[in-house]
Design goal:
By secondary structure, the chain is mostly helical. Helices cover 76% and strands 0% of the residues. It is built from 9 helices and no strands. GO terms for molecular function: disulfide oxidoreductase activity; hydroperoxide reductase activity; peroxiredoxin activity.
C-alpha cells in the first residue's frame, strides 16, 4: 500500500508525521470522493515527486475519472489563483484588488463534480500554498453550502500532513544527495 511506503520512507525523527499520515487518511470521516480528491490535490500541491508517485495510484483507484480530473484541476487552478490573490493581499496598494483579474477560471464554475467537493479540494490546496484570501473565500462557500467546520478542518489536516511529508522527504533526499 502506498501509505505504508510513504510512512516507511520517513526518517525516525518524523515519527509524528508517520502517525498523522495514517490517521488523517486511514481514519478519515470524509466520504471517499472528498477524501481521495483532497489527498490527490494536496499531493500535487506538495510538489513532492515521491508523495505524488505514492499517493496518485491509490487516489486513482478510489476516484471516478471525473473526480480524478477535478482534483487535479483544483490543484492547477489554485496554483495560479493562490499566487495572484496572495499577491493582492500582500500589496499595500489595495487599488490592485479593485482591478479585473482577467484570468480564466472556468473550471471553478463547472468542475465536473459536486461543487462542495471541488471547493474543499481548492481550500486544502490554498492551505498548502498559503493564500489567506483563497482560504477565506473557499471556507465561506463551504460553510454557506452547509459543510461542517469539522469537514473543513479535516481537509486542512490532510493538507498539513501531506505537505509536511513531502517537505521532509524532499529534504532527506537533498541531504542524501549532498
Amino acid at each position: 500500500m502506498a501509505l505504508d511506503e510513504l510512512k516507511a520512507a520517513l526518517p525516525d525523527y518524523a515519527k509524528d508525521l508517520k502517525l498523522n499520515l495514517g490517521s488523517v487518511i486511514g481514519n478519515s470521516n470524509l466520504p471517499e470522493q472528498q477524501l481521495w480528491g483532497t489527498v490527490l490535490a494536496c499531493a500535487l500541491a506538495s510538489r513532492s515527486p515521491r508523495v505524488l508517485a505514492e499517493l496518485e495510484p491509490e487516489a486513482r483507484e478510489h476516484l471516478s475519472e471525473q473526480a480524478y480530473t477535478a482534483a487535479k484541476s483544483a490543484a492547477a487552478i489554485m496554483a495560479m489563483n493562490n499566487v495572484y490573490y496572495r499577491t493582492l493581499h500582500l500589496l499595500s496598494d489595495k487599488e490592485y484588488s479593485t482591478m479585473r483579474a482577467g484570468l480564466r477560471m472556468n473550471v471553478i464554475g463547472n468542475p465536473g463534480v459536486e461543487k462542495t467537493d471541488f471547493e474543499l479540494w481548492s481550500f486544502a490546496v490554498s492551505a498548502i500554498n498559503g493564500c489567506g484570501m483563497c482560504l477565506d473565500s473557499h471556507e465561506q462557500v463551504l460553510r454557506k453550502a452547509g459543510v461542517e467546520r469539522e469537514t473543513v478542518q479535516e481537509a486542512a489536516k490532510i493538507a498539513a500532513v501531506v505537505a509536511a511529508v513531502g517537505a521532509t522527504l524532499e529534504a532527506e533526499g537533498a541531504l542524501a544527495a549532498g
